């Protein structure tokens, strides 16, 4: 029985070993016409810069931007390769293997927020972008986006592309049922702080007992933590010496306690993000609010479908700021044309590149000049009652404090959030949850 | 080409002629010998060469990796058996072993019994026998992920069909992912839905090779159909049952897709690892936490566990029908 599943596992297990052997013979990836100039002189011959990204659908939405660049720069042609729609289990391991092997990676590679701590701790694999003058772009970015691109040696190795930001999406039909205002400005005024949000939730639950006020633990936890981390030196689970501080960072405990108070008051729908139940609840009005990064708008409209159009709207997030997700571009030091790659990277992360990606795929820009471009600043979302999504998300990231991601940030985050979801859903008791939360964090940090 | 002609010449009558007593030259004798002895090995070699590259080498390489603290794009230090000692003391690993064995038992035992009864029924004279036989195989041709997605929806906590039916009998909604017993049952049903028909067809094929006169003789002696089933069918099916049990053991111990889909695509198998199987544990360690050495050690232990369990099952099944 189960030949298929068995093959899947064997493939997964074998992939590690095979990929490592492939690495030994992968030295033939250099572009055909590779002039081995020092990189400073303008290339006389045509060179090709490979750009590796990930993601489904529109992914990085660079088709237009790359076409613009290629038209303007006949000598430096960009080849845009979206490798896979799966970041965690396909793209990241593959990129790590290429970096380790010293060849195979594109001249520019894209990286998701979750792996930035890991990359920052591997300075040897990336070109110093400051060497090509890209540190002058610092003023274009909110500090928290720029600083993540600075590695453990203090060098700039990555520049930001899109950003999640954070807003609060809500169901107008359920708010109406609960006797709450439905206009987005009035809704935003309901919850200047997270405590107000909790109080609104209690009122809501009293009127509409069969729907959750919020979907589950994940989005609220991350929104609160992003704000709390700013108050605590920008730390999440690791301090700047890569020491685990999951039990010592008061921001983590505050975010944990807040989720506990929400869940204990019965305000969550006890759903796990990305589960089937979560999707169904989104369609059927199983919960009234959800923490909403810019890319979540697409998830909601895609999942809820046309029948729920205009039932969703977007208000400001309590506490006024937050972020979930976003990506960066970097140049591996194995690139044969680091200077040209840095030029392309500068264009793609610059105003024109980010605005083009926003137009093509709705990826919200992280660079401030791009956010101020009328295309972005005046953007409205028809599905969400023409909510002015541009200004809402720009405001949510303007005041964010810089944050620091440890090398094992992604692993610790996944492990501790699992405990939160478990406690919310009842498989972990709340009075044991914090101990377990810390234990799992320690285990994941290895 | 000429080699095979030479090889055949031995068995053929030697044509009369002037060179009748001449011995073939030494070189030809060598080729002839090579042809007879080596050609068969040459013909079977492609399989073994591929097996060496894709079977034996990864196995040995995994063993080598398992002796290191092997981080992807990080440090690799030789640490001997440390991964194994750490693994054997890791309660998360043993939890995943328990889950795998538990799901295997509650999935496989009913599955094979049901398959046996189903095959027996299909072996009878029925109207539309071909259609029935084909339809039990239908679940197998659906994608395993599709099966898992549909079943995961059926077992949904808030909007699932199963809870809706149970609700009609006054049972409170069950959060199937939340407890070990409920998640195991849910996953076991996915496995059984997909594989019962497959095993039934194998049993059916084997049943059709049992001579009819055995049943006739038994019927004349007054044996009931039930007695015939246990006294004739099952003992004669023993080699087939052993085969299905071993294949099921391997499949059950490497269970992966169903629990992953059931747990929203995560490798953790529930918030506290309620249904994390060993295969999921390996992928989590290797490809989420990038501890290749640790994952490789777990893969080797899984290999040994499968060998041991397959042998135990073999011993148990071999005893079937002996006492009867």
From TrEMBL, chain A:
Keywords for this protein: Signal
InterPro entries: Bact_solute-bd_prot1, SBP, TAT_signal
Keyword Glycoprotein: no
Signal sequence segment: 1-24
Keyword Signal: yes
PROSITE patterns, sorted: PROKAR_LIPOPROTEIN, TAT
Protein name, UniProt field: Extracellular solute-binding protein
Source organism: Herbidospora galbida
From TrEMBL, chain B:
InterPro entries per the UniProt record, alphabetical: ABC_transporter_permease, MetI-like, MetI-like_sf
Domain named ABC transmembrane type-1: residues: 97-313
Region (Disordered): 1-24
Keyword vocabulary terms for this entry: Cell membrane, Membrane, Transmembrane, Transmembrane helix, Transport
Coiled coil: none
Transport among keywords: yes
Gene Ontology biological process terms from the UniProt entry: transmembrane transport
Superkingdom of origin organism: Bacteria
Topological relation to the membrane, as annotated: Multi-pass membrane protein
Any one Pfam family match given in the protein's UniProt record, by short name: BPD_transp_1
Membrane-spanning intervals of the chain: 47-67, 97-118, 130-155, 181-206, 236-257, 294-317
CC terms in the record's Gene Ontology section: plasma membrane
SUPFAM superfamilies in UniProt: MetI-like
Subcellular location: Cell membrane
Main location: membrane
Gene3D superfamilies the record matches: MetI-like (1.10.3720.10)
Family: Belongs to the binding-protein-dependent transport system permease family.
Record-linked PANTHER family: ABC TRANSPORTER PERMEASE PROTEIN, INNER MEMBRANE ABC TRANSPORTER PERMEASE PROTEIN YCJO
Protein name per the record: Sugar ABC transporter permease
């Amino acid at each position: 029985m189960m030949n298929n599943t068995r093959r899947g596992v064997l493939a997964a297990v074998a992939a590690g070993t095979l990929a490592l052997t492939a690495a030994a013979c992968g030295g033939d990836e250099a572009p055909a016409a590779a002039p081995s100039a020092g990189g400073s002189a303008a290339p006389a011959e045509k060179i090709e810069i490979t750009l590796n990204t990930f993601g489904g659908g529109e992914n990085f939405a660079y088709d237009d931007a790359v076409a613009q660049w290629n038209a303007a720069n006949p000598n430096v042609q960009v080849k845009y390769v979206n490798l896979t729609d799966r970041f965690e289990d396909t793209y990241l391991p593959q990129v790590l293997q290429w970096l380790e092997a010293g060849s195979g990676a594109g001249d520019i590679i894209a990286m998701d927020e979750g792996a930035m701590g890991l990359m920052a701790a591997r300075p040897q694999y990336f070109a110093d972008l400051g060497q090509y003058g890209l540190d002058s772009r610092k003023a274009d970015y909110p500090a928290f986006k720029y600083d993540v691109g600075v590695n453990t040696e203090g060098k700039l190795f990555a520049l930001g592309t899109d950003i999640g930001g954070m807003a609060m999406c809500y169901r107008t039909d359920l708010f109406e049922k609960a006797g709450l205002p439905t206009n987005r400005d009035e809704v935003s005024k309901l919850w200047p702080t997270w405590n107000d949000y909790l109080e609104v939730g209690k009122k809501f639950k009293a009127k509409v007992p069969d729907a959750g006020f919020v979907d589950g633990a994940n989005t609220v936890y991350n929104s609160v933590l992003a704000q709390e981390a700013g108050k605590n030196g920008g730390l999440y689970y690791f301090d700047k010496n890569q020491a685990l501080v999951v039990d010592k960072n008061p921001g983590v405990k505050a975010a944990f306690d807040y989720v506990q108070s929400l869940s204990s008051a019965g305000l969550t729908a006890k759903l796990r993000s990305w589960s089937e139940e979560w999707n169904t609840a989104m369609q059927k009005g199983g919960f009234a609010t959800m923490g909403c990064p810019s890319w979540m708008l697409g998830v909601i409209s895609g999942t809820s479908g046309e029948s729920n159009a205009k039932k969703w709207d977007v208000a400001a997030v309590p506490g006024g700021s937050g972020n979930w997700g976003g990506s960066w571009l970097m140049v591996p030091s194995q690139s044969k044309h680091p200077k040209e790659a840095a030029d392309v990277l500068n264009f793609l992360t610059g105003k024109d590149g980010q605005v083009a990606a926003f137009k093509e795929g709705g990826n919200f820009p992280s660079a401030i000049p791009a956010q101020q471009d009328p295309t972005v600043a005046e953007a409205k979302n028809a599905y969400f009652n023409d909510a002015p999504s541009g200004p809402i998300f720009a405001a949510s990231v303007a005041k964010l404090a810089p944050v620091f991601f440890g090398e094992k940030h992604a692993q610790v985050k996944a492990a501790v959030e699992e405990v939160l979801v478990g406690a919310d859903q009842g498989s972990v008791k709340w009075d044991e949850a914090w101990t377990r939360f810390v234990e799992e964090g320690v285990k994941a940090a290895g | 080409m000429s080699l095979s002609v030479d090889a055949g010449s031995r068995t053929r009558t030697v044509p009369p002629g002037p060179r009748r007593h001449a011995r073939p030259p030494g070189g030809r004798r060598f080729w002839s010998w090579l042809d007879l002895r080596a050609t068969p090995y040459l013909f079977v070699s492609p399989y073994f060469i591929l097996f060496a590259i894709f079977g034996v080498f990864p196995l040995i390489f995994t063993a080598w990796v398992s002796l290191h603290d092997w981080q992807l794009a990080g440090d690799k230090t030789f640490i001997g058996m440390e991964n194994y000692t750490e693994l054997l003391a890791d309660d998360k690993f043993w939890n995943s072993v328990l889950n795998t064995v538990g799901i295997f038992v509650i999935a496989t035992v009913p599955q094979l019994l049901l398959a046996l009864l189903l095959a027996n029924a299909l072996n009878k004279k029925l109207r539309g026998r071909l259609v029935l036989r084909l339809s039990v195989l239908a679940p197998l041709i659906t994608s395993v992920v599709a099966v898992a997605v549909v079943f995961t929806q059926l077992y949904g906590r808030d909007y699932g069909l199963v809870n809706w039916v149970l609700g009609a009998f006054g049972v409170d909604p069950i959060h199937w992912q939340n407890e070990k017993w409920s998640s195991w049952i849910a996953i076991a049903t996915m496995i059984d839905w997909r594989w019962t028909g497959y095993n039934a067809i194998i049993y059916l094929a084997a049943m059709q090779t049992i001579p009819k006169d055995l049943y006739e003789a038994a019927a004349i002696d007054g044996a009931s159909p039930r007695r015939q089933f246990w006294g004739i069918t099952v003992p004669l099916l023993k080699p087939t049952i052993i085969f299905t049990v071993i294949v099921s053991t391997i499949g059950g111990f490497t269970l992966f897709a169903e629990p992953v889909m059931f747990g929203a695509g995560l490798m953790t198998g529930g918030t506290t690892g309620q249904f994390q199987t060993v295969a999921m544990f390996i992928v989590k360690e290797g490809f989420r936490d990038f501890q290749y050495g640790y994952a490789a050690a777990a893969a080797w232990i899984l290999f040994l566990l499968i060998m041991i369990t397959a042998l135990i099952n073999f011993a148990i099944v071999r005893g079937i029908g002996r006492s009867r």
